[in-house]
Amino acid sequence: MGVRYTGRFAPSPTGLLHAGSLVAALASWLDARAHQGRWLVRIEDVDTPRCVPGADHRILEQLALCGLIPDEASLWQHQRSDAYQVALDALIDKGWAYPCGCSRKEIEAAQNQAVARHQAAVYPGTCRSGLNGKTARAWRLNVQAVQQALNLPALTAWTDRRLGAHTPKVRQNVSDAVGDFVLRRADSLWAYQLAVVVDDAAQGITHVVRGEDLADNTARQIVLQHALGLPTPQYLHTPLVLGANGEKLSKQNGAQALDLSNPLASLTAAAQALGLSAAPKGSIHQALQQWQHDWAKRWP
């Protein structure tokens, strides 16, 4: 018997759900239901200074109004520090993570020099061979050390269920495009990349359905999954909802919180953004059933 499908929606409580985040929530819910799987909600609140008090519970209420109910109690990342520390310690023990003493100003200066030399503006690995008298601020993954030790290719690629396997968005040379990325920040907060990889494994996530803007993170997460000996889920990155200025609709881009005085209307707009037809007049439950049927045919 195969591993049961488990999907998740993982909002950051830096504000309430907006039209773009409802699209991601609906897509992940539909994919889970179409595969007779479990659907979980994880509150990604590791970046605590940016979190809005009370937004986490309001997001859960917004989802409930739309008929999107998780199958298990939600998980909050701010409660998971011990698990992230265990993962970091494992990487340190293998010599695959190192302390970085560079300030933001020093990193920006090095990146500007790289741009002037027509090179990628990535972290140049300044502290990879030692702190050279600096005080440790952050922890970084030694990407090349992981790839060499595990015989991984320099180019990390995956097959995306929507984007396919042959577009630039599904392959990345992490060393060249990103460099040795942060696992724990200089302010002692856990980095998104480490937290999401550890939590996906802990929750048994088999399928990740999320916005296309997060495709750029996938290669880093796959490298980390290999480094920690964790499974790699299947990925499907959904189309983005754009704002009036043509940029991704987001809280940083002025996206307004959903007006859920008519949840079915909001859900219908989200479904149409996913290429699904408008539901016939009826209940939210009836609409979700129709979209689930349509989704199952489109994304088997």
UniProtKB/TrEMBL annotation:
Q: What is this protein called?
A: Glutamyl-Q tRNA(Asp) synthetase
Motif ('HIGH' region) on chain: 11-21
Q: Where is the Glutamyl/glutaminyl-tRNA synthetase class Ib catalytic domain?
A: 8-257
Q: Hey, which family's this protein in?
A: Belongs to the class-I aminoacyl-tRNA synthetase family. GluQ subfamily.
Q: Does the keyword ATP-binding apply?
A: yes
- InterPro entries in the record, alphabetically? Glu-Q_tRNA(Asp)_Synthase, Glu/Gln-tRNA-synth, Glu/Gln-tRNA-synth_Ib_cat-dom, GluQ/Sye, Rossmann-like_a/b/a_fold
Q: Which gene encodes it?
A: gluQRS
- Listed binding positions for L-glutamate are R8, F9, A10, P11, S12, E44, Y192, R210
Q: What NCBIfam families does this protein map onto?
A: PRK05710.1-2, PRK05710.1-3, PRK05710.1-4, queuosine_YadB
Q: Where does Zn(2+) bind?
A: C100, C102, Y123, C127
User: Where on this chain does ATP bind?
Assistant: K251
